[in-house]
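Revision sheet: structure tokens.
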Amino acid sequence: MIEEITISDLDPRQIKQLDAADKALSKDINYSLEIYSAILKQSPGCLELRKRLRHQQLKLAKGTSKGLSSLMGKLTNAPFLFKTKTNKDPELTISSAEELIAKNPFNAAAHQMLADAFAELEMAGSVVFAYETIRSFQPKDLGNLKKLANAYLDAGESDLAIQTGNAILQINPSDGEAEDMMKRASVAVAMNKGKWEGSTNFREQLKNKEEAEALEQSAKTVNDAKGLEALIRQVYEKVQAEPQNLNHYRHLSDLYQRYGDLQNAIAWIQQARKLEAGKGDVSLEEKERQLTIEFYDGIIEQWEKALAADPENPASKKGYSDAVLAKKNFQRQQLESLVQRYPNEYGYRFELGCLLFEEGEFDACLPHFQLAQRNAKVRLDAILYLGRAYLNKKFFDLAIEQFKSLKSEIQIMDERKKDAVYQLGCCYESMGKTEQAIEEFKLVYSSDISFRDVAEKINAFYSQ
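Predicted:
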């Protein structure tokens, strides 16, 4: 059984090696990391050394975008993560996870493997540190934050559990799991401060009996994250028993998505698509596309936060731009493939048209918006974008035709109609037809004075 120890508890020879490695950090950090890793492999319970190793690994990796941009590498390995997590030998799992982290310190799945192994070995402090590490580079991962909060509770760190619960509620104010956890943590804090000493029933100490019952019930309630883990294991067993059943793969992907683990959610859809029955399933392909876009959005959000903290950091600037570009390239590649393979799925054409429009490729987007009008769900938006594209090409007569069509067809002055009427006014303005332009701008102004710069246009006209 492994126990958590400090560096001072290590063998004296190992301590000397660490001293030498510390001195070499500024000259040869890779050498120092090798020494740290070797000693940690011999003494996996040394949490103090693990923290020292992780600090240097993350520091070394921060200068590159490797951790947050290697999406496809993560997805390729993801189908096998669950098998590794359920390894019966937690010490072997720790060793495997550290090898993965050495290659990529931002590998959240590897840190999760550590947390699972440490939990099995009842190493509460190490479990906390694994989740804290994930939080350091995925600060808004709700699934991880909930696991961290519960790890704090298990480690007796009730105040930190409450702080983490507050962080969850700032992201999702209506998160019931966080509220339940904070109630349990509040009870623990109160008991630790001695408010319940001398009482055989803490219920008597509470002023509000209903609050006492609620707190007691919260303590008994199975945490939803743990419930999801149990469901994941059950469905995983079904996959093993019926490996050709697509429904099990879908269910497993959905559970991982709810769990906040998008890598595995995507990976299990990918596994399903490899099956004979899944190769032609369009719904699986669409599910994978949407999950991957969501994953990219998470990466972009992380870089945005890094830029907010340090706007001039060149690595963060590059990481953000690379992530945004990678998402655009992925979306375009996927949509072009979908349009080619499913030419009559006009919703895909509309999405591709919007992407091309945002890139300023107005000639390329025109045929997609023209065809997208055959889809009733996006018809009006397709007409609006078509008009915008014509306007950008200075084909004013064609643009006016589209905007007039929307103006007459949409009965209420909603955002789409305001946009169409405003753009119609811009067409007339660009053609030098001031009176006609002002008439259109007046319609928007009378409905919404704050719409874009319409107030400025009206004021400028009447001040002449």
